[in-house]
Amino acid sequence: MVFRSAGLRRPKFAPELQDRLPPGQYATQRWPVRHDGAIPPFDPATWDLRVFGLVARPLRLNWENVQRLPRVTIRADLHCVRRWSKLDNAWEGVPLRDLLRQAGVQPAARFVLVHCDAGYTANLPLAAVNRDDVLLATAHDGETLSAEHGFPMRLIVPDRYAWKSAKWVRGIELLAEDQPGFWERYGYHSNADIWREERFADEGDGGSTD
Fold first, then answer.
1. Model pLDDT, residue 16
2. pLDDT tens digit string along 94-141?
3. Domains in the chain, please, with CATH?
4. Do 20 and 77 meet the contact criterion of CB atoms below 8 Å apart?
5. In what order do the strands lie in the sheet with 59-62?
């Protein structure tokens, strides 16, 4: 299930994008759909979001609770490991940092494991998500997220490849030690820094270094 593109040259792009596109990426207006398996159903009566693990105050929020949380809008690009980049997205949602503060992250926590419907997980260093520009997004460019793009909630981590911006989020688990996520078990890089081209585990050490 690892998709590689051998022998690709760096794509050409407009000079004004030279400092904006990470190495090996090209800009596109399209937003391709990428996931494995069926889109999970959403029932607002039973859906919930958990923040748990190494926290002082575990959270469990239902859909009504989430709707009442303060929201922000950020503008951030989305970079897929398959080399396309969709620029200037307006993401609206709940800052993950706000929920981490509310839960009270314990000092031993160094990593997060994002749990999603459909069996997906994504691992990230805590430092990579405890930032003002990391959202639990519910809307894109002024419209509610479509189901194929992650409705009701998608994590957005702008400086990681898009598989880390996991769709259909249901839980944020705080951990002392890193654990591989869904795609990482198929050879994708644990850290996934877009500027270091951390695409696959055998391209570098594969570790979480942030």
1. 61
2. 999 999 999 999 999 999 999 999 889 999 999 999 999 999 999 999
3. 45-186 (3.90.420.10)
4. yes
5. 59-62, 48-53, 169-175, 111-116, 121-125
What are the φ and ψ backbone dihedral angles of 131, each rounded to 5 degrees?
-135, 160
Which pLDDT score, from 0 to 100, does residue 97 have? Answer: 97
| 17 or 39, greater pLDDT | 39
CA angle 143, 120, 109 (to 5 degrees): 100
Instruction: Count CB neighbours of 118 within 10 A.
Output: 14
Residue 209: its pLDDT value, please? 32
Range name among 78-82, 199-203, 204-208 with the lowest pLDDT average:
204-208
The 3-state secondary structure of the chain, one letter per residue = CCCCCCCCCCCCCCHHHCCCCCCCCEECCCCCCCCCCCCCCCCCCCCEEEEEECECCCEEEEHHHHHCCCCEEEEEEEECCCCEEEEEEEEEEEEHHHHHHHHCECCCCCEEEEEEHHHCEEEEEHHHHCCCCCEEEEEECCEECCHHHCCCCEEECCCECHHHCCECEEEEEEECCCCCCCCHHHCECCCCECCCCCCECCCCCCCCCC
pTM metric for this prediction: 0.86
Alpha carbon distance 31, 205 (integer Å): 30
